[in-house]
């Protein structure tokens, strides 16, 4: 976890006075330098926050936290009772999770002179839009910070992410570390889970954005309406000052209606008119070129080095966010120059093959809508057959599996159904559901079931010819597979390259 390297110590009595909180035990002379809700990550001088969770109450790990150097505990009444014997000075709150953001902002002083803060939510395209934004901000000459599902960046420093959106204590520590590195603009990917679980509390974004909403995460939310409401909670004055909403999914209009902050809209969908509209001019295997036109006929023509209309849509959203943040469209155009946006997006329709042989793309798509768009993009540049290799997450929304199988079959010529992260589920039964879904499609791709995935990609490469494309959807940038709770080291990109080498293509 990234933390400030030179944290300042803050008096816990000051926190209690500022927030008007109750306490147990003496706080005299207690100073805190950090905050965490994970006992295993406590550093000397930390305030340990005991959060009640789905599996256990964090306060039951207070002894471990103390042994690692925690100087105080913040928890609820039940937590205080659980940790009574540990003897840490204790601050009492009704909901430790709800308090975590503001308390962390106070400890790390992240509300003092914050950088430009840009946040993105939506089902698909958050990571892509975040990287595109980071790219443009760098081209504008700013030192940037980034937090996504794939990586967190502080200027040129990169670390691999664990959650899409870190817990609030980690988020504020990250922001404090970014401040030490003189980061001027920060782009944060914000999941629905983060909004529902207080992970971006204590942060007021300058601009918040919505990409789209489609079937996903219905293991966490009762239905699409509840999922939408979780996302729309981003468009509240305590979260963001201004909003940008993509109208590319029908839910965009709903977010506009639900928003309680000023919003502007952007559309890349023909026939759907936003305040900003994007028209695709050219699509090649190396870039997508587009014109973005806004109010008062302001317009910008540029390109993004990614395939598919959806990536141009993400780029349009990113540019409108910057305009809303106060950048002139002309200045953005000038910074992008003739070559357009410079970005490298790990594991999103990432081409891992060389010049000879089939094109092989590794992608992070794991929802029907992501499959639809990436398959359409790959099809455009495939003179031969589209071969899709995919599996589905175990212990995650199982209701989307039929639709994933159906969309995959509709969009490809050959389907290789394999495993992804089975977690605690039986991989064979996940594959069976995907195959059932494929059977519901109007277009029946030729189907073969191959397990495990290292065999599946080798099979796909062995049947592919020059001019064919292989889309391996699911693993993207990830460097592990979760099998029965164990994170086994595994890189789809490395496996795909190896399979190509073994077949003599690289
Ligand atoms: C459903 C969910 O979000 N759960 C999160 C939640 O877990 P929980 O409430 O069950 O916590 P718990 O296991 O009961 O533990 C209670 C407390 O004790 C602490 N603890 C526990 C054990 C221990 O030894 N020491 C210790 O300190 C825990 O840190 C926690 O604070 O709090 C934990 C502590 O921060 C998170 O790690 C955990 O995320 C889990 C790993 C997760 O997989 N979350 C996913 C669903 C998620 O958030 N995904 C989204 C979006 C993904 C996407 O877009 O596709 C994301 O933003 O990543
Ligand atoms: N605007 C978009 N509309 C539909 N699909 C998209 C869009 N942008 C990206 N995708 C596809 O969705 C998948 C995930 O992309 P990306 O990682 O950018 O989204 P995300 O919202 O960050 O997803 P996650 O939260 O799972 O990380 C990829 O297959 C990508 O090609």
If you had to describe this structure to a student in words, what would you say it looks like?
It is built from 16 helices and 26 strands. The protein is α/β, with parallel strands linked by helices and 506 residues long. The strands form 5 sheets. An 11-stranded mixed beta sheet has the order 11-10-9-12-8-13-14-15-16-17-18, sandwiched between helices. A 6-stranded mixed beta sheet has the order 19-20-24-21-22-23, with helices on both faces. The chain has a 5-stranded mixed beta sheet with strand order 2-7-6-5-4. Strand 9 and strand 10 form a beta hairpin. Helix 5 crosses helix 10, helix 12 runs parallel beside helix 13 and helix 15 (453-463) crosses helix 16. The mean pLDDT is 96. It binds ligand UAG and adenosine-5'-triphosphate.
- Structural Rg: 24 Å
| CATH homologous superfamily assignment of the largest domain | Mur-like, catalytic domain
Major sheet attributes: 11 strands, mixed
Residue stretches low in confidence (pLDDT < 50, at least 5 long) are: none
**In percent, how much strand structure appears in the residues?**
15-25%
Total DSSP E strands: 26
Q: Give the tally of structural domains.
A: 3
- Ligand inventory: ligand UAG, adenosine-5'-triphosphate
Helix content: 25-40%
Which CATH-level-2 architecture of the largest domain?
A: 3-Layer(aba) Sandwich
Shape descriptor: globular
Structural class: alpha/beta
The N- and C-terminal alpha carbons lie at a distance of 37 Å
The first-level CATH class name of the largest domain: Alpha Beta
Number of helices: 16
**Average pLDDT, to the nearest integer?**
96
What would the CATH topology of the largest domain be?
UDP-N-acetylmuramoyl-L-alanine:D-glutamate ligase
Strand order across the largest sheet:
11-10-9-12-8-13-14-15-16-17-18
Function: Catalyzes the addition of an amino acid to the nucleotide precursor UDP-N-acetylmuramoyl-L-alanyl-D-glutamate (UMAG) in the biosynthesis of bacterial cell-wall peptidoglycan.
InterPro entries: Folylpolyglutamate_synth_CS, Mur-like_cat_sf, Mur_ligase_C, Mur_ligase_C_dom_sf, Mur_ligase_cen, Mur_ligase_N, MurE/MurF_N, UDP-N-AcMur-Glu-dNH2Pim_ligase
Protein name: UDP-N-acetylmuramyl-tripeptide synthetase
GO biological process, one term: regulation of cell shape
């Amino acid at each position: 976890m990234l933390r400030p390297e030179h944290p300042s110590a803050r008096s816990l009595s000051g926190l209690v006075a500022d927030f008007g909180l109750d306490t147990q035990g003496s706080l005299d002379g207690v100073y805190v330098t950090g905050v965490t809700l994970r006992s295993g990550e406590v550093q000397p001088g930390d305030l340990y926050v005991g959060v009640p969770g789905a599996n256990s109450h964090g306060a039951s790990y207070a002894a471990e936290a103390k042994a690692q150097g925690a100087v105080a505990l913040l928890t609820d009444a039940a937590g205080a009772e659980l940790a009574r014997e540990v003897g840490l000075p204790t601050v009492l709150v009704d909901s430790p999770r709800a308090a975590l953001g503001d308390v962390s902002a106070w400890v790390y002083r992240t509300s003092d002179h914050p950088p430009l803060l840009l946040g993105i939510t939506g089902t698909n395209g958050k990571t892509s839009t975040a990287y595109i934004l980071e790219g443009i901000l760098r081209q504008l000459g700013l030192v940037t910070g980034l937090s996504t599902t794939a990586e967190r960046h502080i200027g040129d420093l990169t670390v691999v992410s664990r959650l899409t959106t870190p817990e609030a204590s980690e988020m504020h520590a990250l922001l404090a570390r970014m401040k030490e590195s003189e980061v001027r603009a920060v782009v944060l990917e914000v999941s629905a889970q983060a909004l529902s679980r207080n992970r971006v509390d204590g942060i007021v974004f300058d601009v918040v954005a919505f990409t789209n909403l489609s079937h996903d995460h219905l293991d966490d939310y009762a239905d699409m309406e509840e999922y939408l409401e979780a996302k729309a909670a981003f468009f509240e004055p305590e979260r963001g000052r201004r909003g940008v909403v993509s109208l590319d999914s029908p839910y965009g209009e709903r977010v506009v209606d639900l928003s309680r902050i000023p919003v502007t809209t952007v559309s890349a969908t023909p026939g759907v008119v936003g305040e900003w509209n994007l028209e695709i001019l050219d699509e090649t295997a190396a870039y997508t070129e587009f014109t973005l036109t806004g109010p008062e006929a302001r317009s910008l023509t540029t390109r993004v080095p990614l395939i598919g209309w959806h990536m141009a849509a993400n780029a349009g959203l990113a540019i409108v966010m910057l305009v809303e943040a106060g950048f002139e469209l002309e200045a953005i155009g000038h910074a992008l120059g003739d070559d357009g946006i410079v970005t490298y997006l790990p594991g999103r329709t990432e081409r891992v093959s060389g010049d000879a042989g089939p094109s092989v793309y590794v992608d992070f798509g794991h929802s029907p809508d992501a499959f639809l768009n990436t398959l359409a993009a790959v099809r455009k540049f495939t003179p031969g057959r589209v071969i899709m290799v995919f599996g589905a997450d175990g212990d995650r929304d199982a209701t989307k599996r039929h639709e994933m199988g159906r969309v995959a079959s509709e969009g490809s010529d050959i389907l290789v159904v394999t495993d992804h992260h089975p977690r605690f589920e039986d991989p064979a039964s996940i594959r069976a559901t995907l195959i059932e879904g494929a059977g519901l499609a109007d277009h029946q791709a030729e189907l073969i079931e191959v397990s495990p995935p290292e065999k599946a990609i080798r099979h796909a490469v062995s049947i592919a010819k020059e001019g064919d494309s292989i889309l391996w959807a699911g693993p993207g940038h990830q460097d592990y597979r979760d099998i029965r709770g164990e994170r086994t080291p595994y890189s789809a990109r490395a496996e795909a390259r190896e399979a190509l080498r073994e077949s003599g293509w690289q």
